[in-house]
Automatic annotation (TrEMBL):
Annotated HAMAP family: MutS
Similarity comment: Belongs to the DNA mismatch repair MutS family.
Region feature (Disordered): 1-24
Job description of the protein: This protein is involved in the repair of mismatches in DNA. It is possible that it carries out the mismatch recognition step. This protein has a weak ATPase activity.
Gene: mutS
Organism annotation: Tolypothrix tenuis PCC 7101
Protein name: DNA mismatch repair protein MutS
Entry GO terms, CC: cytosol
Highest taxon of the lineage: Bacteria
Length: 863
């Protein structure tokens, strides 16, 4: 049972006159007709909030009114509901429904819009109302409800023992992908990467159709599904192999799924088919244009698990979860919303295919070298709106005329874009050299049909230019002539009647009228018919005035309808081109990302890393891309890195530690160990994204995974201690890392007794260096670990240096060979003002410990 349901356990009100607030308890036969209809609708959507159009408002009644008034802090009122008495009610003005619905959806509710589908003034009996839209967190299209800078993913998951299928779509941009795997940990990591707004999960739970809001638990959800997301519990039927497959075949009009790459991936097919069914169920008449389904494999990309993504602060900082200070913040120089979203996707899913990486690098390089091209492109890209989402809204029939003008403006920039890149030779720029002629024609047509600055509402006219449609022009001319006649009426009647203060006015109730001050009412001509008497004036109509008015009003309705029809036809034409426009949008987005990365490379002095097939990681004068932008220019101290043991030998054939697999990094607090560790991880990740990197030179073997274990954060949510979290993360690394992984460990074993911690740290480092041979940087305060380098050829010691003055330590932030053998902790204590006697004693204790802790020697004896 969801929290949503539990709030509405039928409870009989004690108060005899309290308004009814539960549809399940009310005597329906005593409800008035409209409420009976409302209750029928509510029965169909028990788990959603039903917004029901009544005149100028979207109202909610009964239990929904209670929820909505609480969630939106609106006043809960009541209304007469027939013989039953009063019914709880709260509502929002119809023009503001988007704003209020956004808030409800953000809180994890599904919202059903039940709108009037006929003109209230023409309705016989009850106005016809239908469900026109169902909004759930993962199925939004409206501009105001979406964040421009990130995708809004709807995911669907199928689990069979340890195997899983995952499909996801962003219906606002049309992306639709599916995959399957056999390790549930990968499923969790994929979901954490995608951060979907809603996840569909097929189950046989009794409360099908409900949405579990973030943090809500259900016995029907398996452990591998992170509780941070909204889960929609769905029937298993559309997720069955047969149904899902035929839905996909039908949607993409194909005979087999071979071409989509998932013919032999039953779980991927089941997830994708189930997702399509949900879209059909929620989108009603708006059919959403989706790109052709793409199948991918998780291991085709660099695997960056959630902890690592968090520790490396890819999209938000660890400390306060802000975008400012993240890698994305430091790298984003894109000029379009599409580019911004693409950069985020790229950073969350870096490549392992060298050719793919080099194609991006080639494009950046061309743009770095050709400054004029880069600047011109960036200038032009600024004028391109969100083509992906505009097309989505056009295709689903939710775009307004302003959207189509924005789309036309953007499409008409594309020929200029292709002209700019006509001489380009790198792959991503060449992809823009040809713009399909039909898109140019479409842009011209839209511009020729729709006025430059149309109103938001599409049913109230004022959208279409003259010269587009003869009938429209003729009706417009008639209306204008009648309006002119009315405009002249004031002057004509003043001269006819000799009343200089006579006025022609208009109001909603009476339409046009002639107003005469009461003092002059005796001079009124006989054909004037009195309609209304006010304190100082009398209002009249004439048969002729009413005839003109009737003509204007009816012609205006026809005009608005005709304009609407022309507009809808144009919108459909755009929808038909959705696939072509979106293919091009993706190419534009990629060029925007690469242009931004090129700009960054030039401004920040990045270099093109050489990507090599081996295991080597060689970085000369590397910098941390975020820290260097956060401190004054020139203050960041660059440091080099050399990792990836190649059985290095010196001139005499002796093994050396020059090119180790594992570095033990020591240094005092705040000297820069964490910064260095992250810098290496970020440079590797940036390089596999295709970006240039903050270094003087870099030669990098492609990694399969990056792991980090950084800092100590209590996982209060799961009730795990700092130490257990640390051990879990470490276990995960040791169980999954390979010799092609990059492992960054900061402070292993600090959350327990010193000797336990040191022993674990030692054993972990040794295992990584000897068994896994992963490239590892191990930052630690246990300088005893420096002894490892004496035992293992592929381990080297490095330290972050400081300069000691009598009463202070100066941080040099320089990473140099060698191990710190000094306890800076005691030094720091002295600087902090610990009494001299305590410091002295601490040094004595330290000396004793060191005397008895020659670990390497002891272990050799053990071996
Ligand atoms: N290479 C560098 N150049 C300039 N400033 C640096 C550099 N490295 C680190 N810093 C600065 O030093 C501060 C401390 O660095 P960091 O947190 O990496 O230290 P640490 O050695 O990991 O400390 P602790 O052991 O206490 O965790 C950083 O916030 C950064 O501003």
């Amino acid at each position: 049972m969801t929290a949503f349901d539990s709030e509405f356990q039928p409870t009989e009100s004690n108060h005899p006159t309290a308004p009814h607030s539960d549809t399940r308890l009310v005597d329906r036969s005593k409800l008035s007709k409209m409420y009976q209809h409302y209750v029928e609708m509510k029965d169909k959507y028990p788990h959603a909030l039903l917004l029901y159009r009544v005149g100028d408002f979207f109202e909610t009644f009964f239990q929904d009114a209670v929820t909505v008034s609480r969630e939106l802090e609106l006043v809960l009122t009541s209304k007469h509901g027939g013989e039953v008495g009063r019914v709880a009610m709260t509502g929002v003005p119809h023009h503001a429904w988007e704003r209020y619905t956004t808030q409800l959806v953000e809180k994890g509710y599904a919202v059903v819009i039940c709108d009037q589908v006929e003109d209230a003034s023409e309705a016989v009996g009850l106005v016809r109302r239908e469900v026109t839209r169902i909004l759930t967190p993962g199925t939004l299209l409206e501009e105001g409800m979406l964040k421009a800078s990130r995708n809004n993913y709807l995911a669907a998951v199928v689990i069979a023992a340890t195997h899983w299928g995952l499909a996801y779509a962003d219906i606002s941009t049309g992306e639709f992908l599916t995959t399957q795997g056999s390790d549930l940990e990968h499923l969790t990591q994929e979901l954490m990467r995608l951060q979907p707004s809603e996840v569909l999960f097929p189950t046989n739970a009794p409360d099908l159709g409900s949405i579990l809001r973030p943090g809500e638990t259900s016995p029907h959800l398996p452990q591998c599904l992170p509780p941070a997301f909204c889960y929609s519990l769905r029937s298993q039927v559309p997720f069955s192999a047969g149904e899902a497959r035929s839905r996909l075949l039908q949607k993409f009009k194909v005979r087999s799924l071979e071409g989509l790459g998932c013919e032999h991936l039953p779980l991927a097919v089941r997830a994708a088919g189930g997702l399509l069914e949900y879209l059909a169920d929620t989108q009603k008449e708006n059919s959403v244009p989706l790109q052709l389904l793409r199948t991918y494999t998780v291991t085709d990309y660099l695997i960056v698990d959630h902890q690592t993504r968090r520790n490396l602060e890819i999209t938000q900082t660890v400390r306060d979860g802000t975008f400012h200070g993240s890698l994305l913040w430091a790298l984003d120089r894109t000029n379009t919303a599409m580019g911004g979203r693409a950069l985020r996707r790229w950073l969350l899913q870096p490549l392992i295919d060298i050719k793919g990486i080099q194609a991006r690098q080639d494009t950046i390089q061309e743009l770095v070298e050709n400054t004029a091209l880069r600047q011109d492109l960036r200038q032009l890209l600024r004028q391109i709106y969100d083509l992906e989402r505009l097309t989505g809204r056009a295709g689903s029939g939710t775009a307004n005329a302003k959207d189509l003008v924005a789309l036309a403006d953007s499409l008409s920039r594309l020929p200029e874009l292709s002209e700019l890149v006509s001489e380009a030779y790198s792959p991503f720029l060449r992809a823009l050299q040809k713009v399909p002629a039909k898109l140019e024609e479409l842009a011209q047509k839209l511009h020729a049909h729709i006025v430059e600055s149309p109103p938001i509402h599409i049913k109230e006219g004022g959208l279409i230019r003259s010269g587009v449609n003869n009938l429209l022009d003729e009706s417009k001319a008639t209306v204008e002539a009648d309006q002119q006649w009315i405009a002249n009426l004031e002057v004509d009647e003043r001269s006819k009647t000799g009343i200089p203060t006579l006025k022609v006015g208009f109001n909603k109730t009476f339409g046009y009228y002639i107003s005469i001050s009461r003092a002059k009412s005796d001079q009124v001509p006989s054909n004037y018919i009195r309609k209304q008497t006010l304190t100082n004036e009398e209002r009249y109509i004439t048969p002729e005035l009413k005839e003109r008015e009737a003509r204007i009003l009816s012609a205006r309705d026809d005009l608005n309808q005709l304009e609407y029809e022309i507009f809808v036809a144009l919108r459909e034409e755009v929808g038909e081109q959705a696939e072509v426009i979106r293919n091009l949008s993706r190419a534009v987005a990629a060029v925007d990302v690469l242009c931004g990365l090129a700009e960054l490379a030039v401004n920040q002095g990045y270099c093109r890393p050489q990507m090599v097939p081996g295991r080597e990681i060689q970085i000369v004068d590397g910098r941390h891309p975020v820290v260097e932008q956060s401190i004054p220019s020139g203050f960041f101290v660059p440091n080099s890195t050399q990792l990836g043991h190649q059985s290095a030998t010196d001139d005499k054939g002796q093994m050396t530690n020059d090119n180790p697999d594992l570095i033990i990094l020591t240094g005092p607090n705040a000297s820069g160990k964490s910064c260095y560790l992250r810098q290496v991880g970020l440079i590797q990740l940036m390089a596999q994204t295709g970006s240039f990197v903050p270094a003087r030179f870099a030669k990098l073997g492609v990694c399969d995974r990056i792991f980090t274990r950084v800092g100590a954060v209590d996982d209060l949510a799961t009730g795990q201690s700092t130490f257990m979290v640390e051990m879990n993360e470490t276990a995960n690394i040791l169980n999954h890392a390979t010799s092609r992984s990059l492992v960054l460990l900061d402070e292993i074993g600090r959350g327990t007794a010193t000797f336990d911690g040191l022993s674990i740290a030692w054993a972990v480092a040794e295992y990584l260096a000897t068994d896994i041979k992963a490239r590892t940087i191990f930052a630690t305060h246990y300088h005893e670990l420096n002894e490892l380098a004496g035992m293992l050829a592929n381990v080297a010691n490095y330290q972050v240096t400081v300069k000691e003055l009598p009463d202070q330590i100066i941080f040099l932030h320089q990473v140099q060979p060698g191990g710190a053998d000094k306890s800076y902790g005691i030094e720091a204590g002295r600087l902090a003002g610990l009494p001299a006697v305590v410091i002295k004693r601490a040094k004595q204790v330290m000396g004793q410990i060191e005397k008895h802790s020659k670990i390497a020697m002891g272990l050799q004896n053990l071996d």
